Amino acid sequence: MPVLAGLIALAWVTLAIWERSPYGRYLKHDQLGAIGLAAPGLVVEQALLYIAGWTLMTAAMMLPTVLPLLEIFRRLTRQRPDRHRLVTLVILGYLAVWLAFGIVAHLFDLGLHGAFDRSAWLQNNRWLFGAAPLLVAGAFQFSNLKYRCLDKCRAPLSFVMQHWHRGGTRTPAFSLGVHHGAFCVGCCWALMLLMFAVGTGSIGWMLVLGAVMAIEKNMPLGRKISAPLGVILLAWGTLIVLNHTWSWQA
What we know:
By secondary structure, the protein is an all-alpha fold. 78% of the residues lie in helices and 0% in strands. 30% of the residues are buried.
């Protein structure tokens, strides 16, 4: 666990350094549309930098939320000579799911950039890109899918016992990480999409959202904040809509 905590801390430090470097734009999504304008030889390189940035962000934000499961798995496999490799495979499986989600989210965002460039109406209504993620995330806080996935994430022991067998090989360890990652994406995808509303390169917002998701999944208080958080997000999105409405009428 100290090693994992050190890796998480290293991820945050690396993000802070990266954000201030000449490559900081690859942590943000506002210039994502420029990939298609790059020279053919640079397209793959730029895409890989965006993918690396997203993976680093998910490692920093989401690995703290899965520490209870990793600790339980470590204890169950502590007698095995390949225990460290098994834990590593669980982590890789978990991050692989978030990587897949990140690729889909970035492709969707890239499509929105293209639609924005072609639509004068969207260019005159930029507020939609701020209000829509907030309203979606707020509404999702009250969905049955959110709570079903959260219940899986909040019971790491039963989850490990369901998906792991003592005689398991390396493949089930990776599969365990993939299964848990899928439920984690299921309960947190809408909150992660807020990164596209507030700026994916904002260390402050990463810390806030990461802390909220960790509390929701692992703390007794988490069961009490889901609904109030949904109300706050819905109110925030509604205020953006009302502010635009008032401004338009004025």
